[in-house]
Amino acid sequence: MKNEWPLWEIFIRGQHGMSHRHVGSLHAPDAEMAIKNARDVYTRRNEGVSIWVVEANNIAASSPSDKGPMYEPSESKVYRHPTFFDIPDEVGAM
Amino acid sequence: MYAQMVKTTGTGVKSRDEMTDQERAFQDKIDADIKIEPKDWMPDDYRATLIRQIGQHAHSEIVGQLPEGNWITRAPTLERKAILLAKVQDEAGHGLYLYCAAETLGISRDEITEMLLDGRMKYSSIFNYPTLNWADIGAIGWLVDGAAIMNQVPLQRTSYGPYSRAMIRICKEESFHQRQGYDAIRKMAEGTPEQRRMAQDALNRFWFPSLMMFGPSDKESVHSAQSMAWKIKINTNDELRQKFVDQTVPQAEYLGLTIPDPDLKWNEERGHYDFSEPDWSEFFDVIKGNGPCNTDRLAARNKAWDDGKWVRDGMLAHARKKRARNLAAE
To answer: What percent of chain B has pLDDT over 70?
Structure first.
């Protein structure tokens, strides 16, 4: 059996109330070490105040070939955008 | 450039008529600046060339720690030592970002590491030169990182998403590397006659090897066309080399140091400096493994890998035991 450390995906939350954001990945033997390594690899310049790590093989992803059926339906629903509706000037800001 | 002479395995750039529908759709995406992502279809040669290029780049970051690491314990002040430590740590980080990008193409970390260790993959020729005096550390930051930036800034726009994102992170950190180097060599150039002599000596030894970092002249560079069509190479080697010379000459003048090239002069008509080509036979010799430090560098990487094995295995065994214990407790 190959003794390669598993791959972890790293998510970091920055200073200003943003949500955690994917920043990259790294190898580590377990979650605790993945967090320690993520601190060294991805926060050397105050990039974050919170780290999430997820083992990469636990992430399920949509397939690129499903792009059409997945996202095209939303293109025809222009009424979802506020600019679809004309509001009379007299009404004021809305 | 950290990736020199990356070979493409294909037969050259195909015309649109020669492409399959899939290849044409792929090229259209690249032409429209749409990023290629790991799960998207891509030609086998694109994948293979990228693994080679990103791998070579990653290995360069890692091996590049060795010439600088050589001076950590002998840095002249505590502050210089802390700065150099931070810089070398960044290089490790850059290597890791790039290895992760390469892994998204289907090669494992152990495989790509082993290819460096047994010599199947290369790293930049520049790291096969020794660091003989403290001014070399300044020269490396100023010239070597300066040359790397020339190449890496355009690569932020490269077509492969994970590579592009790694380059964006790297470029954010790279400017610190160049500036600390220039600051260190400037201290020497403005110091005692002996320090000045060391600074000039460092420039003399690192000038031509830095020019070689961009790879052979475009006339010799048979693999450029396909890489440029795929946008995994953005500028030609000669373009980048010229840009580097134009930028660096005034920086040397400010330091009062002389670039070791008697033929270097401003060409009013071209709006660029004319300069001498490096000795390309030396370049090919270093690439083949005959540079002053090739053997040392690979031996150091192999030793680190072998000596670290019990740690890697031990930590994994501990993680497995802990997981089994947690499962049993549930």
So the answer is: 97
- What are the sequence ranges of the domains in chain A? 7-88
B180 close to B205: Cβ distance less than 8 angstroms: no
* CA proximity to B308, closest of A40, A38, A53, A5: A5
Q: Which of B90, B91, B84 is nearest to B70 (CA)?
A: B84
Residue among B90, B165, B312 whose CB faces A44 most closely: B90
Beta strands in B133-217 (DSSP E): none
The whole-number pLDDT of residue B9 equals 59
Among B245, B91, B213, smallest CA distance to B144 is for B213
Predicted confidence (pLDDT) at residue B311 exceeds the cutoff of 70: yes
Rounded Cα gap, residues B40 and B47, in angstroms: 11
Rounded to two decimals, the pTM is 0.92
Q: What is the ipTM of this complex?
A: 0.87
Q: What does the pLDDT look like over B279-308, one tens digit per residue?
A: 999 999 999 999 999 999 999 999 999 999
The dihedrals phi and psi of A11, each to the nearest 5 degrees, come to -125, 135
Look at B39 and A29 and tell me if their CB atoms are within 8 Å.
no
CB-based contacts of B173: which residues, under 8 Å, 6+ apart? Answer: A44, A45, B90, B93, B94
Confidence of residue A75 (pLDDT cuts 50, 70, 90): confident
Report yes or no: B278 and B143 within 8 Å, Cβ to Cβ.
no
Residue ranges of chain B whose CB lies within 8 Å of a chain A CB: 37, 39-41, 86, 89-90, 93, 96-97, 100, 103, 108-110, 165-166, 169, 173, 312-313, 315-316, 318-319, 322-323
**CATH topology for A7-88?**
Ubiquitin-like (UB roll) (3.10.20)
Tokens 């890692």 sit at which residue?
B62
Q: How far apart are CA B286 and CA B208, in angstroms?
A: 13
Write the pLDDT tens digit of every residue in B228-246. 999 999 999 999 999 999 9
A43 at the B interface (CB within 8 A)? Answer: no
Separation of CA B323 from chain center: 39
Strand order in A21-27's β-sheet? A21-27, A7-13, A50-55
Structure tokens at A44: 């050397």
How far apart, in whole angstroms, are the C-alpha atoms of residue B14 and residue B21? 13
pLDDT band at B10; cut points 50, 70, 90 = low
Residues 6+ apart with CB under 8 A from B265: B273, B274
**Based on the number of CB atoms within 10 Å of its own CB, is A25 exposed (0-12), middle (13-18) or buried (19 or more)?**
buried
